[in-house]
Every structure is written in C-alpha cells, then in structure tokens.
C-alpha cells in the first residue's frame, strides 16, 4: 500500500503556450535559460516567458475561459453545485474569463483574467481561503482578500498563489511548514518557541517568507516549490523523503522557511509530485529528488535522494509532471516519456509493469501539455483534445465509465471535449479550460 494511495495531489500545472493562453498543465515550448513569466499550480510547472491572455468572443451559453470537470465530486470539487460525481465532463458553474486552473485531492482553484482567485470543494483546514476552516462548497467562491494574482497551485490541504510583484502567498494546512511562514509543527523556526495557532495547524492567507522574483509555483502533498527568475528552485514544507532537495531528510527535517534546492541552476520548469520533485533545466535535461520507492526519480534505482539526480536518457524536454509514485516528461517533439509505479496503467505503456527509467508512450503524439495526480495521467493535444490513462475508479477517464477494474493502460480520449487550452489533474478528478465558446 502506497502512502495516501489514490488521495494525492498531482498538482499539474504549467504554462501552456497555446492560443496565447497560460495553461495549468505542463506545456511544450521553446526552452530558454531564464524564466521571466509566471506559471501555475497544483504540482505546478513553468515554461519560459510569454504574454498570456485568453481571447475569444462570447457566444452561446459558454463564455471564453470556462472550465469543464469530471470524476469524483464527493466534496463539490467539480463545482457544478452538487456532490454527485460524473464520468463525463460537466461545466463548472458561473465562472468565465478564467486563465488558469489548479486542483488537488478534493479542492479546486481558478485564476481569472482580472487577477482574482476562485475556490471550491472541501475547505478542510481553510484551503479555500474564505475565512473558515471547514465545510463543503460545491460552487466557486471568490477569495476576496487576494488580487493581482498571476499563478496558482493546490496541495493536498494547502494552496499557493503568485502575485504580479513576484511574491508568494499561502493558506490552509501548515502542519509541516508548507505555508512557508516560518512555523513548523507549531514551532517558530526563528525563535524555536511554541506558537499558538487556531484550528490546529490551519493558517489564513499569509505571505511566504523571504521569496521574491518568483515566476512559477508547484505544490505536493505537503511541500511547496517556487522557481525564481534566476533559474534557482526554492522549497519548503514536508521533507521526510528529501523532497525539499536541501541534502536532509527524515524526522525533524521539515522546513517552514523556503530553502534553495542544492546543486540545481538554470531551471525553466518545476513540478511537485506527491512526495518527490521534478525540474527541467535549460539544456533539456530532467532532474528529480525525494521519494523513490517505485522508481519515480527515473535514475534506475529505488533509493530516495535528498539532492537532485539526473533522469536517465532524457534530453530536449520542456515540461514534467508527477503523480503519487510516477512521473511524466514532455519532449519538444510532442512525445511523452514516463517512469515509476504502474499498477493501474498510469504509465500508459499498455502494461502494468513498473519502470525505473523513462520509456516513451507509443501512439501519443502532438502533445503540448501533461498532468498527473494519484494514479492518473492526462495529456493535451495540439488539436485541443484531452487524453487520459490510469485509474478510473471515479470516472477520471471522462469516457462515461468508472470502477476499480475500468482503468486504462493506454491513453483514452475524453468524451465531447475540444478546443481545450489547459488541463489540471486532481487525485480523483480532472479540470479542463477552454477559450472556445462552442466547444460542446
């Protein structure tokens, strides 16, 4: 049994350079040494700079920048006003002009073109940012205290946002320091003294300590990553498996203040898996660190690493994504490469055999963005269609089926979706963003 199986966040998000739109999935693009734009969330990844806006004329009943969702809805994370799941895409209620999406276990976030953030789903530990620390919200609500935001990320029970001035803001659970305010396990790292907190370890919206010039965010189960404009990566939160990349691991190694990842520079894209982290360098190589019990680091062994190691045999890569115990990489030629755990077919290789080194998914081409979470993987094609493989217990494949044995070890096209510009994968549900008012 894997830790938090089927309940992990695979924060996928990255900048999708399609139709002039910033996407919440790992996107293909020309790699440049220094990232100068903001990106996104959820296991977030970033690709080099561009001006990102969603354009299109409103017609019919669907406005530009609308969101479609499918899969588990036990906590209202599909945002359609109910808690009933759906194995086909349904529209999130009352949201238009959306530029970015992020999701995790059971909550979802949206960033609108006006810089506001909207949240729905479970509010456990205050991760929706609405001033409460409980409840289920099945329709999007604006986080009123946040404005001028340019990127978002969703962890298991915490959320992150990037402001246009390069500062990072966090809210929700902070048990392991993932909110980045200098407090870990109820203790201030600055003074080594106990800090009184309300509602256990829940935190309101606060600025992450000591970060500036940030261009991208990503969130794992309980750790957070940020990419600076100088190509360095900073990490904070849970670190038992070395996922912060600072050379430490084990009990009492969690950090509530961002620390620079060791021996890593020239990074253009980042992603947090459940308990491991990934980065793409400007030379197209992929580097990973953290948990490696199923080969998700891609270096041919199953030993954890508290500092970055190079993934074997990958070059010309532009983006990465991480699930609970598996990883994906997107090559500049539009092909997808995978490695790690594969018991539900999440590698998409037509087998359920694990792989400790990358292998290419056959018959999957023209990909411009990737995402992963739990035991499910997602890809967006250049023609605007969405393809999913892996676990389908809650209908994550989006093809009208669901159930434990209905998983797919090869990519399956999601029903009735076209014109999609961004994707985000939760543990058991998926979001897709469109700028096309007539996609269905």
**Any idea what the radius of gyration is?**
19 Å
Poorly predicted segments: 1-24, 28-62, 195-200
Number of domains: 1
Q: What's the count of strands?
A: 33
Helix percentage range: under 10%
CATH superfamily: Regulator of chromosome condensation 1/beta-lactamase-inhibitor protein II
CATH classification class: Mainly Beta
Largest sheet: 5 strands, antiparallel
From the coordinates shown, what is the CATH architecture?
Answer: 7 Propeller
Average pLDDT: 85
The strands making up the biggest β-sheet line up spatially as 2-28-29-30-31
Question: Strand pairing plus helix content: what structural class?
Answer: mainly beta
Strand content: 35-45%
Continuous helix count: 0
Short synopsis of the structure:
The protein has 440 residues and is an all-beta fold. The protein contains no helices and 33 strands.
Report on this structure.
0% of the residues lie in helices and 40% in strands. The protein is mainly β and 440 residues long. It has one domain (12-434): Methylamine Dehydrogenase, Chain H (7 Propeller), CATH 2.130.10.30. Strands 2-28-29-30-31 form a 5-stranded antiparallel β-sheet, with no helix packed on it. The chain has a 4-stranded antiparallel β-sheet with strand order 5-4-33-32, with no helix packed on it.
Give the helix/strand layout.
Blueprint: E1 12-13, E2 26-27, E3 43-44, E4 66-71, E5 86-91, E6 98-103, E7 107-112, E8 117-122, E9 136-142, E10 149-154, E11 158-163, E12 168-173, E13 183-184, E14 187-188, E15 202-207, E16 214-219, E17 223-228, E18 233-237, E19 255-260, E20 267-272, E21 276-281, E22 286-290, E23 305-310, E24 317-322, E25 326-331, E26 336-340, E27 355-360, E28 367-373, E29 376-381, E30 386-390, E31 408-413, E32 420-425, E33 429-434
Parallel strand pairs: 1-3
Antiparallel strand pairs: 2-28, 4-5, 4-33, 6-7, 7-8, 8-9, 10-11, 11-12, 12-15, 13-14, 16-17, 17-18, 18-19, 20-21, 21-22, 22-23, 24-25, 25-26, 26-27, 28-29, 29-30, 30-31, 32-33
């Amino acid at each position: 049994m894997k830790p938090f199986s089927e309940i992990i966040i695979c924060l996928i998000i990255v900048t999708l350079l399609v139709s002039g739109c910033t996407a919440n999935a790992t996107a293909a693009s020309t790699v440049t040494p220094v990232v100068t734009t903001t990106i996104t969330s959820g296991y977030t990844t970033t690709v080099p700079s561009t001006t990102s806006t969603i354009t299109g004329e409103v017609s019919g009943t669907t406005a530009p920048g609308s969101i479609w969702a499918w899969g588990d809805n036990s906590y209202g994370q599909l945002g359609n006003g109910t808690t009933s799941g759906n194995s086909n895409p349904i529209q999130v209620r009352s949201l238009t002009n959306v530029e970015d999406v992020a999701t995790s276990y059971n909550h979802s976030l949206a960033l609108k073109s006006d810089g506001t953030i909207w949240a729905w789903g479970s509010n456990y530990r205050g991760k929706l940012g609405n001033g409460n620390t409980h409840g289920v919200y099945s329709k999007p609500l604006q986080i009123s205290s946040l404005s001028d935001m340019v990127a978002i990320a969703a962890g298991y029970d915490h959320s992150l946002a990037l402001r246009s001035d390069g500062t990072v803001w966090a809210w929700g659970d902070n048990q392991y320091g993932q909110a980045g305010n200098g407090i870990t396990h109820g203790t201030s790292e600055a003074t080594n003294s106990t800090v009184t907190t309300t509602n256990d370890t829940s935190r309101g919206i606060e600025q992450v300590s000591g970060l500036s010039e940030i261009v991208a965010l990503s969130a794992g189960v309980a750790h957070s990553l940020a990419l600076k404009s100088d190509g360095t990566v900073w990490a904070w939160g849970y670190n038992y498996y070395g996922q912060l990349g600072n050379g430490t691991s084990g009990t009492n190694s969690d950090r509530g203040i961002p620390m620079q990842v060791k021996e890593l520079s020239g990074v253009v894209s980042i992603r947090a898996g459940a308990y491991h982290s990934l980065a793409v360098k400007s030379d197209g190589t992929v580097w990973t660190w953290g948990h490696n019990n199923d080969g998700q680091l891609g270096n041919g062994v199953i030993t954890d690493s508290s500092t970055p190691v190079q993934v074997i045999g990958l070059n010309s890569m532009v983006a990465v994504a991480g699930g609970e115990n598996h990883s994906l990489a997107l090559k500049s030629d539009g092909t997808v490469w995978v490695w790690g755990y594969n018991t539900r077919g999440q590698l998409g290789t037509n087998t359920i055999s694990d792989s400790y080194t990358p292998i290419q998914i056959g018959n999957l081409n023209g990909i411009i963005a990737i995402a992963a979470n739990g035991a499910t993987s997602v890809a967006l094609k250049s023609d605007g269609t969405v393809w999913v493989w892996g676990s389908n217990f809650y209908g994550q494949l989006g093809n009208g089926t669901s159930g434990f044995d209905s998983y797919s070890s090869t990519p399956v096209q999601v029903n009735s979706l076209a014109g999609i510009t961004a994707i985000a994968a939760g543990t058991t549900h998926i979001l897709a963003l469109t700028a096309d008012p007539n996609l269905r």
